[in-house]
Fold this protein.
Amino acid sequence: MKKLTNKAVLFAILGLVVVYGIVTILHQNHILNDYIMRIIILMMINAILAVSLNLINGFTGLFSVGHAGFMITGGYVAGFITTLVFKVTAETPYYQALPMFVIAILAAGAVSALVGFLIGLPVLRLSDDYLAIVTIGFGEIIRVIFNFISFKVDKGGWVQDVGGPRGLSGIPLLSNFTLVMIVFVLTIIIIRNFIYSRHGRACIAIRENEVAAHLMGINITKYKVMAFVLGSTFAGVAGALLAHIIQMLHPTMGGFMKSVEYLIMVYLGGMGSISGSVIAAFGLTAVSEFLRPIGELRMVLYGVLLIILMLKMPAGLMGRKEFPFLVPLKERQIHAKN
Amino acid sequence: MLKIDHLTHYFGGLKAVEDFSIDIQPRQMIGLIGPNGAGKTTIFNLITGVYKPTQGHVYFDGEDLTGFKPWRITQHGIVRTFQNIRLFSTMSVIENIMVAHHFRMKAGLLASILRLPSFIKEERETREMAAKLADIFGLSDVLETPAGSLPYGRQRRVEIVRALVTEPKLLLLDEPAAGMNPKEALELLALIKKIAEDFKLTILLIEHQMPVVMGVAERIHVLDFGRTIAVGTPKEIQNHPKVIEAYLGEGAKL
Amino acid sequence: MEVFLSQFIFGIQRGTIYALIALGYTMVYGVVRLINFAYGEVFMLGALFSFFIIQLMPLPPVLNVIVALLVPMALCAILGLAMDTVAYKPLRAKPRLAALITAIGVSFFLSNLVSYIGPDSVRTVSVLLFATAGLVILMTLSQKLFNFPKVPKSTGINWLKRSIMVGSLCLLGAVAWIAKPALALLRWKGSSFTAFPVDKLFEVVKYPIFGSVYITNVQIVIIIVAVVLMVALSFLVNRTMLGMAMRASKNNKEAVSLMGINVNSVIAFTFIIGTALAGAAGVLSAITYPRITAFMGIQPGLKAFIAAVLGGIGSIEGAMVGGIIMGLAEQFAIGLAPSSFGAAHIDFTPLAEGISFAILIVVLLLRPQGIFGEPPQDKV
């Protein structure tokens, strides 16, 4: 049998290392300023959100409109942990803050996963319309809840309100390029490997024909919940990263409007394509920074974009195609032989 | 092996199946025939758990499966094909087949995400097995083709292969030869019969083309308006007055 | 008792507004199985149109009320028709999800557009519209001259369609250009909220009914208008040919089209009626809670949808009953939640806002088909 190595994967790893090296060097030499670094980091965080939403909407065929709700849940959890539990401040040395931040990220993922499970289990038995409406409702509940949760913190003599309607501010800046890139690459790898396993195949089968998947022995509720929970987990992780780069959170950030932005990324890239989601998330994040001068008009154009996409380009940019390095080959060698 | 006791099912006020009983022994091949709307597919839906019966019970290997979810019934060893083909149409043929092997595979979530050697080995073996089975049904040239783009007859074959990889004990075939001419139909049925012997399968078959089912089934149940009107060997059925009456309206040649 | 009674009156008032929007959801869902998320935005536009009309027209109060209700209803109906034609009709044969996503797009577009348009920005929109028209002309010319972007020879250019497109873009652009001084005159500020001039319509009169409980003339008008609209709707659906066609389309669209009825126009009428009702709800709501913002429709839209689900989506009686129940439940939750609890003085009123979503979850768990709905039957 001919040994088949996936050259694309090698190239991708090489490419990642080179990109990482160049960006780091350029940043250290102040050719890329902090503002641009921040955009690059936001691009990767949005890509995590888009890819994880694609797992739910594109690959499993569920229709969740509440991704921002999971994101903000993770953001708040991580923000509360770093600011209130560990009391990390701008003065804390990074090597001390990092392990605390990692714990916060993991906790954010876990809480979002739990919330996803609690919402998914009852609702995923029903048809897709209901999921859409419940997830929108969930975004609103999250807003209500984070409006409600507030703490009084004694800051050496004066009492400060934290949380509640005015949001959570003063979150330390802990998400840096290296860390976000590691999480981003891990997310892509995990979701890719999930999709190209028996579990991912089960999810895609549910999207293609729910009744047939059911009758081929697949526990459809279990796999819908699994995809939903996995997607929510990554949304929570992304939220934790986001909170520690924009340094403030507001209850409304988990609402319908924000969720629609992630939906647009998924549909622009192509439902059922990891590559597409990454491209669209990178592109839209960069473009919307570029469009900052036109302000709110950006949102109007997003609405138009979504309508035009559905009417004229339902497959998105990539359809269901993937970059070669996102398709594992090792187990397919018997095929190459034929 | 499969024992159905006085199965009755209503759709609203309409009696789709009334007092249906059957007892199938291992390795038998039983035919289920009847005019359109006689309730044949409804019986399949009741056996596989798509519908819950209004009355009656379904026993399989001595266990009462009535009211089980479809996926659990499949995991117990009963699998079906569909009259109106239900493939995973944008997935490739080989993936369609591999999906059905899902619950026989063991790789856990963590093993899959880490791509442990055990996971790769299992994936490879499943793929190999699927390819081999596809080859028996003459599908080896289209393994990577999206299943939905195949011609009708080949899609039916994919459905049968997909059902077989769940490693069933009882195979329910819903008009597997629909849309084929009698010659093709007989060829397919001969193949199914051979497979049934190789895999030690029991088969319950719905078929519209009388000569096809006459040639392969050892016993035939005839339904009309949800009621069983005749049971017997193909010979007995051919001459049964009630069967002739039920089919005359359709002009089927017996 | 007095608290209960006054909360009850407010609850009914709130409920009739939900019921009116819910009717739109449920009627369209019944016929095309589409959740038109944009009803919340139609609701907002109804209030907005009404605001403009009141600012523009110095009519005597009674007449003003009627005009300020009927004209926005008509405008919203036109908008509903446009929505259906542009965004939903082309997707009828596509998977249901596509139309659902488009509906979200429409909702997103409308609310953000209204938020954006103000005296300072309206000319930017105008320029954008003219630029789009120019782009269409350019593309058409390049298609004609160089066959780029490539189109198959058989599909020629539909000149009529293109002309209409360019024409309407230019018209809208011109309107937007002229609108600048008008908007300034009308004191519409765009993104921030605008007060609805209730005083130009009513002089609020309170009628005592029981102890300190009173009912206002505004509340009476709202409840009467809502009841009249619902009775009219029931008559339309149950007693007219159009209504019969609607009910038939719910069951079997093929059969209806075989009867020689144009199903697409039945659907269009359903949209028209639904959006007119949502527009009316917007006006009634603005009279009660006199602040208009571009995003005011999202919450009532969602809650009305929950009301439709509660009543049984697809069922007209269900939407009415569900709306009233939702209104009452919410009013009681908000009115009775403790605003100061325990030693820490925790305010529970923000949580009362979430009652509707709690209702949704409970309904979906216990009876997903709603009060009047029938359990779904899937076919194999």
Summary: The longest strand of chain B covers residues 14-24.
